[in-house]
Amino acid sequence: MNLSRPGCRSHVTVVLLAGVLVHACGGGAPDLVRRPVSPPPTVLITDVSIFDAKSGTRVPSSDVLVVGDRIAKIAGVGAVVAPAGAQIISGTGATLLPGLIDMHGHVSNASGPAWESETPDADRNMRAYLYCGVTTVLDPADMATAAFSRRTEVAAGELLGPRIFAAGPMVTAPGGHPVPVIENLAPWWIRWYLIPRFTRQVDSPEAARAAVDEIADLGPDVIKLSVDRVPTQAPRIRREVLAAAVDEAKKRGVRAVAHIGTTEDAIDAADAGIAAWMHGVYKERIADEQISQLAAYHIPMVPTMTVFESYASLGEGPRQATALERQTVRADVLDSFYPLPETDTAKFFRPYFELLRSQRQAWRDNVRRLRAAGVTILAGSDTQSGVFPGAGLHRELRLLTEAGLTPADALRAATYDAAGFLANGAEPDFGIIAEGKRADLLLVEGDPTTDLDALARIRAVLTGGVPLERQAISTN
């Protein structure tokens, strides 16, 4: 193991304490993506249809010139002359989209079965995101200070990964989510290290303000507050504590986002002044009369249906892997989710899984009705057990179409609308294809605005104007 690799540095302390160096940054699997040794100074994509993320339409027959990390020129086919040394990529029969944005992408989570106690590999996760065309990630909960050092290393080009927006530790009630999850999934000898770095447990408005101040000093892009009960018997943050945390975040110039699960959670978080609902109302069907109430808050929602669908399907049969999952995840990992073992961890979470199974149609229906009422839907996967980095966002987009969005609407939720939230009122320089914008780009075969499966038929991924070299684990 090479401890000098950038992907290892931010997690070396955890790995050493855990005594499991063998899995920290390695394995013999392909790298998935590499930056070319000599990146071209310019790239010309010819005869390509462009997905206009703002309008949700597909514009045919264009040439796109990329110079450095920016889109320099968009013109009709043949109108752009390739400069000397340019790499030319044919776009015939393909669609060029902005790089996808995962609005709930945990960079350092493991995605294998929870009962396997897999050691996370953030470096590999980031390359999996890029392989699947995800060039920007909002990581809404991670350890301090690893989340912020990783963000800096990616921005400086020292680490290959998607552009990261980071929240750092999650503010929660004493014993609230995610504390029970860590206590039941992490080995006993590492829990003491993980819990105080992943969470700030607060039991009063004063403690909430102090925790928010501490996190704000680290430079988060948002601050994450846990309102949901996971599992269902877990403690829940009190309203006055929640309100104090949001108020303090506003004073520090940082927006707060809230992990919710019920209609009550959504209303309490909105009344406190949060900027986005992370997860939808997934534990119950929202009463018809409360749809307009929630829409009136004008708060965007990141439903993350794919994570709930993943847990709801545990034990129902062998996992049906997608093409991108087979290309980025070892076959033995994909096959290890079934059958569900009779472990203490599985028994502990079984009531939660059963609740999810009973509400499958409810959370789809909630998204459909909220969007019809005007709620902005943003795409996020919630990368964790059963939700794989990059491939999970593709699953989420499919579920969004099952909840009533058109393929073009789902794509906008993972591009233009997501970028608008992350830009926080400013004009985003990503999430849309236009001259002068950042060249984070995804080229796919076919037309994903009418056939969402085309999104997985990736011809090229560019990050910062550099076409990445992609290598799948398997092509089956």
Relevant terms:
Urease, subunit C, domain 1, 18 helices, alpha/beta, six-stranded parallel beta sheet, 2 domains, eight-stranded mixed beta sheet, globular, 476 residues, TIM Barrel, single chain
Give a quick summary of the entry:
The chain is built from 18 helices and 19 strands.
Q: Please, could you describe this protein's structure?
A:
The structure is a single chain. It contains 18 helices and 19 strands. It has 476 residues and is α/β, with parallel strands linked by helices. Strands 2, 3, 4, 5, 6, 16, 17 and 18 form an eight-stranded mixed sheet that branches. Strands 11-10-12-13-14-15 form a six-stranded parallel sheet. It starts with 5 loop residues before the first helix and ends in a 6-residue tail after the last strand. The N terminus is likely disordered.
What's the helix and strand layout?
Blueprint: H1 6-9, H2 12-18, E1 33-34, E2 42-52, E3 57-67, E4 70-76, E5 87-90, E6 94-98, E7 100-102, H3 122-131, E8 134-139, H4 146-155, E9 163-166, E10 170-172, H5 179-185, H6 188-198, E11 199-201, H7 205-216, E12 222-226, H8 239-251, E13 255-259, H9 263-272, E14 276-278, H10 288-295, E15 301-302, H11 305-312, H12 323-328, H13 331-334, H14 344-358, H15 360-372, H16 391-402, H17 407-413, H18 416-423, E16 441-445, E17 458-463, E18 466-467, E19 469-470
Parallel strand pairs: 2-5, 2-6, 7-8, 8-9, 10-11, 10-12, 12-13, 13-14, 14-15
Antiparallel strand pairs: 1-19, 2-3, 3-4, 6-16, 16-17, 17-18
Helix pairs in contact: 7-8, 8-9, 10-15, 11-14, 16-17
